[in-house]
Amino acid sequence: MSAPQQARAAAAGVEQATKPRQVGILAATGAVLGKELRLERRAPQTLVAMAIFSATAFVIFHFALQRDALEGGLAAGVLWVTLTLAALLGIGRSFVADRDEGGLDGFLLAPVDRSALLAAKVLTLLAFLVAIELVAVPLFALLLLEPTPSAGQWLQLAAVLALADIGIAVIGTLVAAMAVRTRARDLITSILVLPLCIPLIIGASQASEPLLSAGTGGAPARWLAVLALYDLIFGLLAWALFDYLVED
Amino acid sequence: MPTSKRLYGNRLAILAPLATVVVLASLALAFFQAPIEADQGFSQKIIYIHVPLAITTLIGFIYGGICAIQYLRSGDPRDDLRSYTAIHQSLIFCIGALLTGMIWAKASWGQWWVWDEPTLVSFLIVFLLYCTYQPLRFSIEDPERQSRYAAVFAVVAGAFVPLNFIAVRLADPLIHPRVLGTAEGGLTNGMKPAFYLGILGALLLFFTLCRYEMANKHTRAQLRALRRRFGQDAPARAGRSSAPEVPAR
Lengths: 248, 249
Fold this sequence. Notes:
The structure holds two protein chains of two kinds. Chain A is mostly helical. Chain A has helices spanning 3-18, 25-42, 46-65, 72-93, 96-100, 103-109, 115-143, 151-179, 185-212, 221-245. Chain A contains ten helices and no strands. Chain B has helices spanning 3-33, 47-74, 77-109, 118-130, 133-138, 143-171, 181-185, 192-229.
């Protein structure tokens, strides 16, 4: 048997061996998500940085604005600027380990749908953002927020946070996948994510402003709708375009 | 070699004079034929430049996105070049639209920048986003990947443009009089020819400039290929560049 024939036979063998073990997209997503969370649990890096950054940012805002307490639009602004910039830290790290340690190549060799990587990365970023907000938002309320929101307002704020987080996670993953293969990685991430997030920040600030003001105002439904629409459109776009970013 | 002329020369020979004539005619109509608006006076004339520039910018960005989709489907470098030139020229038109918008704001509201004019604010955000197109391309060395990633960016940004307009417009408390909103509806019959001819002129100018840029890129690639064929020491690729590389034919 000549060498090419052997190679062909081996390839056919591999094909036969792998075909029955085709992994579904859900299982693949779960596996990658599990890997990401295990990595962060064993060597906490990104979450710690994001938490410290948020706390420091609140202190900086206290001194820069020279205010002891914030409310309304100013409070919403401080909260969203802090959360967006903290998210940038997580986005910047999103694909770095995969590229440096060859995880991306390993994933591309695996016989699974590439969308599983997108889904897993979005869910990871989402989990990080939620984890950070569980610390940063109460801390913000403690340090800077003057009127204490009611229980109902807290719930609505959680809904606004969740909708905005989905958008940030989707945009962040798309940009991170793009930026990780460029030379000026961190620069590209920041300048791409921030303008793409502006509509999200408009929606999130407008929706959370009445929640952070004195009074019993609720989040305007139309802003929640705008956030949801944004999440939906960019979710579909990311799903359609992600394959082109991890082609090789 | 006449390839470049065959490809672009003839069309440019028609497009360029046509664009010149239409732009000049629209300006002539705007200044000599269109009536002076009662409210704002002479400064209102800027809409015959500002609005066509703005509309062309948006059409150009969306056209760049459509070409990018085509590139992702076909992998043809010429589609990437179309997308690149469209976005490049739109960015220049966008600067024009922003500057004329600011001049108009100064003339009618007394301030160079007003945050409650949602269209102007949207243009600033879109401008900031598309400013990152060139740095993104420049930071990717592999030409094929550069084109592919740039195409993904162009599609995302193309979808971002209308969404951004919706979000910014909704955020506007609508206290300010909507001058731009009445620009189409509030045009008197005397203003309409200059206005529509202005839009046509800006579009023609845009496509002429795109053609010029594409012809330039093709000619350069051909020149380099010829130099190499005749033994001169010319590199296959002209250094690292944010512009797409076109194969010489």
